[in-house]
Design goal:
- The protein is α/β, with parallel strands linked by helices.
- The protein has one domain: DsrEFH-like (Hypothetical Protein Ychn, Chain: A, 3-Layer(aba) Sandwich).
- The protein contains five helices and five strands; from the N terminus they run αβαβαβαβαβ.
- Strands 4-3-2-1-5 form a five-stranded parallel sheet, sandwiched between helices.
- β1, α2 and β2 form a beta-alpha-beta unit.
- The relative contact order is 0.20.
- About 7% of the residues have low confidence.
Length: 147
């Protein structure tokens, strides 16, 4: 019994600072590289929850295969949602996030390596500036996740 109480105390002692810190966070940085539509969609879902439910900033940096989400005319697979809700694509969700105020940037290596230029970008997407991305990633006021 003492061991159970001690373990419970440790869990609570570790959880309380994390919960208190979440309230003080400014937002969420998402680095998205996966080519998988379901993985991309989960990142979009968490970004949406962060932006709309928690009123926190969201910054998404698209790199590698996920960079295709930023390009006009590139296809993005539909992903079925639980409960029979209408299927949506990560690209559709990304456009909604941009309209809701998310900051979306494309890795500066993507376009030259895809043989494209900035004219192919969806409205609201910029080219990432590595010093600014790095500054936000090391800022303790933001949580970072990668998909």
């Amino acid at each position: 019994m003492k061991q159970l109480l001690m373990k419970s105390f440790v869990v609570v002692a570790l959880a309380i600072p994390a919960l208190l810190n979440a309230q003080n966070l400014k937002g969420l940085n998402i680095i998205m590289t996966s080519p998988d539509a379901q993985t991309q969609m989960m990142g979009m879902v968490l970004a949406t929850m962060t932006l709309k439910k928690h009123q926190k900033e969201v910054t998404i940096t698209l790199c590698g295969p996920a960079g295709a989400l930023a390009v006009k005319g590139e296809k993005s697979a539909l992903v079925k949602r639980p409960g029979g809700a209408k299927a949506v694509s990560p690209k559709m969700a990304l456009k909604g996030l941009i309209k809701a105020g998310a900051h979306v940037a494309l890795c500066p290596l993507y376009l030259p390596n895809a043989g494209k230029d900035a004219s192919v970008l969806l409205p609201g997407i910029t080219i990432a500036k590595p010093p600014l991305v790095a500054k936000k990633l090391i800022n303790a006021d933001y949580n970072n996740i990668s998909f």
